[in-house]
Amino acid sequence: MKKDECFELGYITKTHGLEGEVSAVFDVDIPEHYADIESVFIEIQNQLVPYFIEYIHSANNRLIVKFEEIDGVEQANPLKNKKLYLPLKALPELDEDQYYYHELIDYSIHDQGLGELGTVENVFDMGSQMLIAMIYKGKEVLIPIQDDIVKKVDKQQKVIETALPEGLLDLYMEE
């Protein structure tokens, strides 16, 4: 499995107990959607390695995960701070007017006032907000994903309609 065929489900924070369990965070909107997964991929030395799940349960606002064949702290310890991945096909289906951020890559950006601007190169999570990255006149431009800026996402045509604030592009064009 290649990393670009997966999405980041979450990460392991620490070991839990003495039986090889780990404490994990599922960094998704609805973690309960993933309560019955049978396996995850963990990135080890730049390779995604499958780990089969014995069980997952919730305790004190966190998830406790027990992987098959991980039977002690010494086996679980190397998994601390590792990211958990699932194949993109494991994502729940969304309504027509909803989208996953990774889907926006390669969409065209069309501004209501400025016309065609470019193509989405990447989407960044800055913690407090998501940003679309595009190349405009040779410069990287970051566009906040907010309702007042991103007006419409057309999944059929792969077009994002925006209403950029006046002067936003000018900020990036100045040397």
Task: Describe the protein.
Helices cover 6% and strands 48% of the residues. The protein starts with 5 loop residues before the first strand and ends with a helix. The model has no long low-confidence stretch (mean pLDDT 92). It has 175 residues and is mostly beta strands. The strands form two sheets. It has a six-stranded antiparallel beta barrel. A six-stranded mixed sheet has the order 10-9-8-7-12-11. The chain folds into two domains: 3-90, RimM (Elongation Factor Tu (Ef-tu), domain 3, Beta Barrel); 101-170, PRC-barrel domain (SH3 type barrels, Roll). The chain is elongated, with a radius of gyration of 20 Å. It is built from two helices and twelve strands. Belongs to the RimM family. This is Ribosome maturation factor RimM. Binds ribosomal protein uS19.
| Main sheet characteristics | 6 strands, antiparallel, barrel
Number of domains: 2
Helical residue percent? under 10%
Low-confidence stretches: none
Question: Mean pLDDT across all residues, rounded?
Answer: 92
The Rg value, from CA coordinates, equals: 20 Å
Ends apart, CA distance between termini: 42 Å
Order of helices and strands: EEEEEHEEEEEEEH
Name of the level-1 CATH class of the largest domain: Mainly Beta
The CATH topology of the largest domain turns out to be: Elongation Factor Tu (Ef-tu), domain 3
The CATH architecture of the largest domain can be named as: Beta Barrel
The order of strands across the largest sheet is 1-2-5-4-3-6
